[in-house]
Amino acid sequence: MSQHSRRLLRGLGLVCALALGATACGGSDEDSGQKKVGSSDIQAALEKGGTVTVWAWEPTLKQVAEDFEKKYPKVDVKLVNAGTNNDEYKALSNAISAKKGVPDVAQLEYYALGQYALTKEVTDLKAYGADKLADSYSPGPWNSVTTGGGVWGLPMDSGPMALFYNKKVFDRYRIAVPTTWDEYVEAARTLHKANPKAYITSDLGDAGLTTSLLWQAGSHPYKVDGTKVGIDFTDPGAVKYTDTWQKLIDEKLVSPIAGWSDDWYKGLGDGTIATLPIGAWMPANFASGVKDAAGDWRVAPLPQWEKGANAGAENGGSSLALPTQGENKELAYAFVEYANSGAGVQTRIENGAFPATTADLDSKTFQDTAFPYFGGQKANEIFAASAKSVPGGWNYLPYQVYANSIFNDTVGKAYISSTKLSDGLKSWQDKSLRYGSEQGFTVEK
């Protein structure tokens, strides 16, 4: 492995990203020439049996693991919650660095997968024939697991965006459901004037929401070509976003309540937070966290940046990947394919997950599902249409986990001070590029 590659490894393991100065966060030297693994090899491994250790926090996998063990009695699936997102990534990178305790399968969100793929800390699943599954998935998730000619995980779910809105509030103040973001701003003004305690949404600055809205606006801020990276938050799509969202901030039309807090759930329940532009995985959170508002909320297509346009975006979602240092690769891949492409998908849908598989998104049963929480609305019709309208060509940085960790210290200042959103994005851009340069990337400015 070259000195340059080792330098990248030191920077890219999340433990290194969050605690600079750590030693090499190792990947495998077996970067190429992977042996092809056929279905007969996988079947033989299943018949022989063994243990598959899966690090994941997604709750529907519990039933999937039980079903997999029933189908293959000699296989033991050890499901471990090593923490959600950043907590798991830190633990995973520590295990990779120590070359000890690395799981066979790990849940990695799409924005985080790239750093492990670049350093070959996860296995290219093309050797297992995963590339043949490309047409099985909607464009956004598949694009997120493929880079540099490799397939680094299988999509577990997706988060096509929609606008969740409180119909009871909209009806009370005679507000039409916005179809464009300009109309959204007008709705925000109307609502807040009618009830100064009510806001169109809550936003204290969120990296995921920001990148999703940039994506929908046609922005392509991240240029990634192997170890070459560039960032530009000034393209036309980014300007659309900053110009519009700055109005909401300047006019104090968004609630200064942190997402996922008790006050946030209270605001969703009492109508003082009237909409959420968010991923299709949100319904279960409404049903469990905002029970008293059942029947008040509905789902609409995401507002557009241009009238008559039809563009969506992904917001959230995860893959299951095989860490390179993991053992029992054939068993691990068999489980991942079962969970994300096979019978496990339907099990997960039945337990509240939102699929990334086109067959399920297109199925009449799926689209005809009525949501009692949303007044019997067939919300999956809107989610499925959104999944098909996600623009292609989106990239995340190969160190997006680190970039997101400094979002509040850069862009977040626009929500709590006189800093303009465009200036906050410029600060985020500069600090992210500086970090990339420090870690050995070729930075294009």
Give the helices and strands, then pairings.
Layout: H1 3-12, H2 14-18, H3 39-48, E1 50-55, H4 61-71, E2 75-80, H5 86-98, E3 105-109, H6 110-118, H7 139-145, E4 146-147, E5 150-151, E6 154-155, E7 161-166, H8 167-172, H9 181-194, E8 201-202, H10 207-216, E9 222-225, E10 228-231, H11 236-250, E11 254-255, H12 262-270, E12 275-279, H13 283-289, E13 297-300, E14 318-321, H14 329-340, H15 344-350, H16 358-362, H17 364-367, H18 379-388, H19 400-405, H20 421-438, E15 442-444
Parallel strand pairs: 1-2, 1-3, 8-11, 10-15
Antiparallel strand pairs: 3-14, 4-5, 6-14, 7-12, 7-13, 9-10
Helix pairs in contact: 3-14, 4-15, 9-11, 10-11
Q: Can you offer a commentary on this structure?
A:
With 445 residues, the protein is of the alpha/beta class. It has two domains: 3-158 and 316-362, D-Maltodextrin-Binding Protein, domain 2 (3-Layer(aba) Sandwich), CATH 3.40.190.10; 161-313 and 393-444, D-Maltodextrin-Binding Protein, domain 2 (3-Layer(aba) Sandwich), CATH 3.40.190.10. 42% of the residues lie in helices and 13% in strands. The protein contains 20 helices and 15 strands. Strands 2-1-3-14-6 form a five-stranded mixed β-sheet, with helices on both faces. Strands 12-7-13 form a three-stranded antiparallel β-sheet. Strand 4 (146-147) and strand 5 form a beta hairpin. Helix 3 (39-48) packs across helix 14. Mean pLDDT is 92; it is low at 1-11 and 13-32.
